[in-house]
Amino acid sequence: MDVILLQILNGLDKGSAYALIALGLTLIFGTLGVVNFAHGALFMIGAFCAVTLQKFLSLSHTVIDESQTDFLGNPLKVEMRYIEDWFGPEIGGGIVEWSVPLSVLFAIPVMVAVGVAMERGLIKHFYHRPHADQILVTFGLAIVLQEIIKYFFGANPIPTPAPAALAGSIDLGVMIGFEVNEIVYPLWRMVYFAFAAVIIGAVFAFLQFTTFGMVVRAGMADRETVGLLGINIDRRFTIMFGIAAAVAGLAGVMYTPINPPNYHMGMDFLVLSFVVVVVGGMGSLPGAVLAGFLLGILESFASTTWATTTIPGINQVIIYLVAIVVLLTRPRGLMGRKGVMED
Amino acid sequence: MSKSNFTRRGVLKTSAIAGAGVALPTIFTASSAAAYTNEPTGSTVTLGFNVPQTGPYADEGNDELLAQQLAVEHLNGEGDGGCLNTFTSKALKGNGILGKKVEYVTGDTQTKSDAARASAKSMIEKDGAIMINGGSSSGVAVAVQGLCQEAGIIFMAGLTHSNDTTGKDRKANGFRHFFNAYMSAAALAPVLAKEFGEDRRAYHLTADYTWGWTQEESIKAATEAMGWETVNAVKTPLAATDFSSYIAPVLNSGADVLVLNHYGGNMVNSLTNAVQFGLLDKMANGKDFKIVVPLYSELMAAGAGENIKGVLGSMNYNWQLDNEGSKAFVKSFGEKYGKPPSNSAQTCYAQVLLYADACERAGTFNPCGVGEALEGFEFDGLGNGPTLYRAADHQCFKDVLVVRGAQNPTNQYDTLEIVEVTPTDQVMYAPDHPMFGGKEASLGKCNPGA
Fold it and tell me: Are B69 and B104 in contact (CB under 8 A)?
């Protein structure tokens, strides 16, 4: 029982990242009809927003400490952070420690700007081109973006820890009547799940309850008619691209304490996220979220010792097996709409 | 009026015969003139440095490249000479190798076997590289070693830790300075017993490829021999990034030690995930829960950040080693590049110098002569202390370092502290040891190529 609960928790956590990325992918596909293979790169850029802010807050000047020596035997150069000079070690150190949550505020405008620039600068030229062209250009863009990040930040992962108050783990099992150490789960992963739920809820609320969202949904259903009503749907769709980029970016920011970010982390998620979109149904936002969590949970169960000893390698193929079964039995995906990518 | 007897056909025939006659000596002597592949004929000799320049190990590859470039400088008599001043063999004079100025070309392994073979092949065939040096992966090392054996080129391996490189996949043209999984386990086990006790239950997570398998086999055997019990050993995909599904069941498995047979990005993420799950703060079986990382590297320690604090592992070399060779190398590398060298950098530097020295002592670049000079060679002064290049399997034997993640680092390079320098005798094994291919493992015959 404890194993099942643990893997459900793990699945929800993995599913949070899949769902957030797939949600952005679906938003872009549903509004602009573009298959965006650079979406994983947006997740990665979001993560590097957190790295950038951490580095910025850690800007320092060197002070020579004669009492210590460096690896060459010279007096040690100690790095002193400006922020600690200005606000004192406690407040300054606290600000640096909370750099990941603070990065959320930094990442939103950056990611919207990156998304809008990407759409206006490159992707709009490929609206009327075949999907194969869109895939090629966006995949190429993803490689360019990750090489740019590598140039500035190197290839090695960069530690970006969670604040001490949100690091560590809690014994959930004890709270619900299990023995000590039976269900222990990291606090930050629960924060990530809650954060993902809030973002997903906010996106749905924005689309459902605002006039802007209503126009976008109308445009997704029938772009031409909305255009004929005198509404500049292109501009709204551009903004939606920016919002989708921000969703992916925020998913990346909050992921950094889970695994130290590196320049190719976007590619690790890209293919999985496309499978999530296909399983959920192309163009279906609830489908993307549902499939994200579903596949996350399935992947977690497939990684248990019992599963891998029963069917070796199942942990590596489970998502693709599910995709095959879904495509054979429900070609439109779990919640796919009729007519999407069927012309 | 005289009439010419020349016809177009006649001229062509005569030219062809004359051309063939002129070329005849070259055709028959071309292969026999070169006694071995890429025999240097001019005033220079070209070395091939095959390291990951792109991909996840690019930073480690860059460190290797910096060390190799430094070695070339020292061989050519530039810079401060580095370990040429401390190396016990005095064959190198700082005038290149056998009087030829040393040049180098580089290849990008991308940490992929096929890409590494392609880049090594290109350096051998197009650039005339006389040897191949470097790399960061056992899969890559085994693949490139096989290529060099076929091509008649000496392969000086970089960071490769699988037992197979000088075990079942050993080759006459291949040489490894770096230590291996067996040695890590043999060095770590007594320290683990001393620090954690002999009554421990271990849970292994293992990267599912050649290095992970031999690492798990070695550390399991060494820890079980001293009384530890293995609760479970789970293979994790090399491409895995999130290890939460594998780590979540550990605490409730009856284990009180987690052994992470992971390297690189796998290690950074699995260790980070394990610390997130609070393993290091927990008690199991009435004891403090512990994590062990059998193979450490400085770059990966930096990537894991604070998570490595107190975690035990092993290394081939660390810049904090206090011997003359190490001090000379750290000074030379540190003054040129502003940072201490990593253990992969040190092994690549040492390999270049060892190759060059072997050429000098053999008096030839012929790989068979160089191989003979390296076989059974005993030396000191390159940073690791007294070392033997064993003839039977082309594996170097030297002290192994047991290290721990620093509790209170004073600077960004102070990530690991040396716990123990395990003497060579303790990590020695027979060349036909079952973990190294047994009696069937053979170097084969040296191939000079050409």
Answer: yes
Checking DSSP bridges between strand B131-136 and strand B44-51, what pairing results, if any?
parallel
- Which A residues in the span 275-294 are in contact with B, Cβ-Cβ below 8 Å? none
- Mutation target among B63, B64, B247, B252 for the A interface, most CBs of A within 10 A: B252
Q: Are A53 and A333 in contact (CB under 8 A)?
A: no
DSSP β-bridge partners for residue B136? B159
B21, pLDDT greater than 70 = no
B44-179+319-398 and B182-315: identical CATH topology:
yes
B44-179+319-398: CATH superfamily: Response regulator (3.40.50.2300)
Contact A157 B268 (CB under 8 A): yes
Q: Which of B239, B248, B299 lies at the smallest CB-CB distance from A156?
A: B299
Question: Are β-strands A75-81 and A184-186 bridged in parallel, bridged antiparallel, or unpaired?
Answer: unpaired
Q: What distance in Å separates the CA atoms of residue A172 and residue A64, rounded to the nearest whole number?
A: 48
CATH 3.20.20.150 fits domain B182-315: no
Chain B residue with minimal CA distance to A296?
A: B245
| Beta-carbon separation of B276 and A188 below 8 A | yes
pTM of the model: 0.87
Strands B396-397 and B387-389: antiparallel
Percentage with pLDDT > 70 across chain A: 98
Contact status of B4 with chain A (Cβ, < 8 Å) = no
Q: What is the complex's ipTM, to 2 decimals?
A: 0.87
Question: Is A58 an 8 Å CB contact of chain B?
Answer: no
Separation CA A34–CA A51 (nearest Å): 29
Domain edges within chain A: 2-50+103-329
Q: Give the residue extent of every domain in chain B.
A: 44-179+319-398, 182-315
A132 Cα to chain B: minimum distance (Å): 26
Q: pLDDT digits over B368-393, tens only?
A: 999 999 999 999 999 999 999 999 99
DSSP state of B383: S
Q: For B282, which of A159, A181, A316 is closest by C-beta distance?
A: A181
